[in-house]
Specification:
The complex is a heterodimer of chains A (about 300) and B (about 350). In chain A, helix 3 runs antiparallel to helix 4, helix 4 runs parallel beside helix 7 and helix 6 crosses helix 7. Chain A is mainly alpha-helical and about 300 residues long. Chain A has one domain. Chain B has two domains: about 230 residues, 3-Layer(aba) Sandwich (Rossmann fold); about 90 residues, Alpha-Beta Plaits. Chain B contains 14 helices and 14 strands. A six-stranded mixed β-sheet of chain B has the order 6-7-8-3-9-10, sandwiched between helices. Chain B has a four-stranded antiparallel β-sheet with strand order 2-1-4-5, covered by helices on one side. Classes of the chains: A mainly alpha (about 300), B alpha/beta (about 350). Chains A and B meet through helix 2 and helix 5 of A and helix 3, helix 4, helix 5 and helix 7 of B. The structure holds adenosine-5'-diphosphate and magnesium ion. The site of magnesium ion (MG) has 5 residues of chain B, from helix 2.
């Protein structure tokens, strides 16, 4: 039935030299494999779109340079004394990596708002696949694109005196993938509710900017005023920046006092939170937001 | 066609031809206070081109959305290709193709990428994708443009590409919601050529909506919808025959005398409309010879026109479809602006 080929009258077949048989295809029943395929397709589309968007690629390249060298070099002149000989650019490097990944992930998630506006979301929503596959594909796609950004920043490590040690590179890479995933999941969750691009961007800025400033991306997390310390510990980004900084500092040759001041590690009531737990927090938050996003998209018509 | 079908070994043929492709019973949809669809019943035969005709806001899109599982009905049932739209949603989706009122293409991808993505999403056998893609794109005359990004396409090209995409997975039923809205007359005409070609070349049932009266004529059968209910359902010819009377316009040397004579000799009430004496009568052409013989007022010209679907709409609703459109014109302008701004931004 699926490959029935029937001869057709010349009148309809000759249009534009078309082959004279109808190619009849068949849509299989839904299965686990078809869901995996759907995830792959949605993921692949994100990558194709990213590749064809030159402005976005350019932003990807320029933005971290700006942050790192303009912000880093500028502030260095102020703070030379208190960084105990450590280049400020080295200190803020993990934070800059995180913010670059976050911005990219945010824009990736925004694509779901564009898709709705331009109708393409509908094309995906009516396909014989689960909504969850579409949402997962979107999150993975956004996370992949955001991870490219992280890789670019990783490549710049040498310029700010961060050594290219395999464990450091691998560790930071893994952490930024988790962060990229969590932020994309957050964005997709927001996009399920907020259908206007401007409102979406507004909400994202409102969340992402404070998250960035509070996280300790730009300052050490010990000896903060009480209110800021509390906010800092509540900020999910803290748990992405801190393990990255620990990884970077463990590969630096610096004085113990500098290490103690600049890389104190996150504490809960003076208990040092292990890096693995911190990474776990990021993953758990990402998964929770993914689950909410799936639930929200499945509930809509 | 029937000969070759009879000769072919057809044990696997799914359904006898009499099996309706769509069966709708008492279908309803309310959006809060708004009762968009108020209990409609109809059947669409396999292989038919079935049209929904009605002014904007009549409930056409809502009905189509319920049939293609995009909107959950508030009441009633609908079966498409033998599957219930609520309980067997995925089976319905595997068997239908969709062309929405607004474009749903990815403008950043090429035409080919859009179609491939669709085929993959539907799980079409990869060995057949290339051949099928070529076929549907050639049918709508876009094969040469397959490598262009869709955002560079005109409105008509996008619509054609959407029809091609809707056919990629060989659906048994193709839904088209206002496939010609916002297009110029020539492009509208060509879209219709494709739809008719399609009906001949593929074994497919086509369900479409329109608010252009002239287009409904192309359908095998139409349902006229107004304010959420179907007011008439039949072939265009039969619907017009129901209205019965043709419209006759005559230009005479003395219109007043002609009107008086019509009343006296034929008991016909005529009026002057747009500078000519106008009246309605069944089988108008047969009446013309008698008119010349017996009117007694010199006639300069005669025109006989058949009832239009607008006359049908008017006879069932008491107002012309254009009047309804005018009164809801703010709504309509909004739709047009969406279409235009959507096209401009892509
Ligand atoms: N999602 C919705 N929410 C609220 N009202 C809606 C929605 N969709 C359609 N309607 C209303 O239902 C009615 C029928 O709309 P629709 O089916 O789009 O008509 P048509 O396609 O014939 O122009 C209109 O009054 C419209 O305002
Ligand atoms: Mg509509």
């Amino acid at each position: 039935m699926s490959t029935t080929i029937e001869p057709r009258s010349a009148a309809t077949a000759d249009r534009g030299g078309a082959p004279s048989e109808i190619v009849r295809v068949h849509v299989p029943q839904r299965s686990f494999a078809s869901e995996l395929r759907a995830i792959k397709i949605v993921w692949k589309r994100e990558l194709i779109r990213y590749r064809s968007d030159r402005i976005r690629i350019a932003t990807t390249l320029v933005q971290p340079l700006l942050f790192l060298f303009v912000l880093g070099s500028g502030l260095q002149t102020l703070s030379a004394a208190s960084t105990h000989g450590v280049d400020l650019k080295t200190f803020i490097y993990p934070g800059i990596l995180c913010i670059s990944v976050m911005f990219t992930a945010m824009f990736s998630a925004a694509s779901i708002v564009w898709d709705r506006e331009f109708g393409f979301l509908r094309e995906m929503m009516v396909a014989p696949v689960r909504r969850s596959s579409i949402v997962i594909g979107k999150c993975l796609g956004g996370a992949t694109v955001a991870s490219f950004q992280g890789v670019i920043v990783l490549c710049l490590a040498g310029l700010v005196h961060v050594p290219y040690a395999p464990t450091l590179i691998l560790g930071v890479f893994a952490l930024q993938v988790l962060l990229a995933f969590a932020i994309t999941a957050f964005g997709v969750m927001v996009a399920a509710r907020i259908t206007q691009m401007q409102s979406f961007m507004g909400v994202m800025q409102m969340v992402v900017m404070p998250m960035f400033f509070i996280s300790g991306a730009l300052f050490p997390v010990s000896g903060l005023p009480g209110w800021l310390a509390v906010l800092n510990r509540l900020d999910p980004l803290t748990y992405a920046v801190d393990p990255m900084r620990r990884l970077v500092f463990s590969h630096l040759h610096i004085s113990p006092i500098a290490r103690h001041i600049l890389d104190p590690g996150v504490t809960w009531w003076s208990w040092h939170v292990p890096a693995l737990l911190e990474a776990g927090i990021v993953v758990a938050l990402g998964l929770v937001m993914l689950a909410i996003a799936i639930w929200e998209f499945s509930a809509t018509d | 066609m029937s000969r070759s079908a009879a000769e072919a070994p057809e044990q696997h043929r799914a359904a006898p031809a009499s099996n309706p492709a769509i069966v709708v019973r008492g279908l309803e949809k309310s959006f809060g206070e708004v009762r968009a669809v108020r209990g409609v019943d109809f059947e669409v035969e396999t292989g038919e081109v079935f049209g929904f005709l009605g002014p904007n806001g009549a409930g056409k899109t809502t009905t189509i959305n319920m049939c293609c599982t995009l909107t959950t009905p508030s009441g009633g049932t609908a079966t498409v290709a033998g599957h219930d739209v609520v309980r067997e949603r995925d089976d319905v989706r595997r068997n239908i193709g969709l062309v929405f009122q607004e474009t749903t293409l990815d403008g950043y991808l090429t035409a080919e990428q859009n179609l491939r993505l669709h085929a993959e999403l539907y799980g079409v056998q990869s060995s057949l994708v290339q051949a099928r893609m070529r076929q549907v794109m050639e049918m709508v005359g876009l094969w040469e443009r397959k490598d262009s990004p869709v955002r560079t396409f005109s409105g008509g090209m996008k619509r054609r590409l959407e029809i091609a995409r809707g056919l990629m997975h060989s659906p048994r039923v193709l839904f088209l919601d206002e496939p010609t809205i916002g297009l110029d007359p020539q492009t509208r005409r060509s879209i219709w050529d494709y739809i008719r070609t399609l009906k001949e070349s593929e074994e497919i049932t086509i369900f479409m909506t329109t608010h252009y009266m002239d287009e409904a004529e192309w359908c095998d059968r139409i349902a006229i919808m107004d304010q959420g209910v179907i007011v008439a359902l039949d072939s265009p010819a039969a619907l017009k025959a129901q209205v019965g009377a043709d419209r006759i316009r005559i230009e005479t040397d003395d219109d007043e005398a002609a009107i008086a004579a019509l009343l006296e000799r034929f008991e016909i009430e005529a009026v002057i409309s747009e500078g000519a004496v106008t009246f309605r009568i069944p089988s108008g052409e047969a009446f013309v010879p008698r008119l010349f013989e017996q009117l007694g007022v010199p006639i300069r010209s005669v025109s006989v026109s058949r009832p239009t679907l607008d006359d049908v709409f008017m006879s069932h609703t008491g107002s012309s479809i254009r009047d309804v459109e005018e009164s809801g014109s703010s709504d309509r302008n909004k739709i047009m602006m969406q279409v235009m701004s959507g096209g401009g931004r892509r």
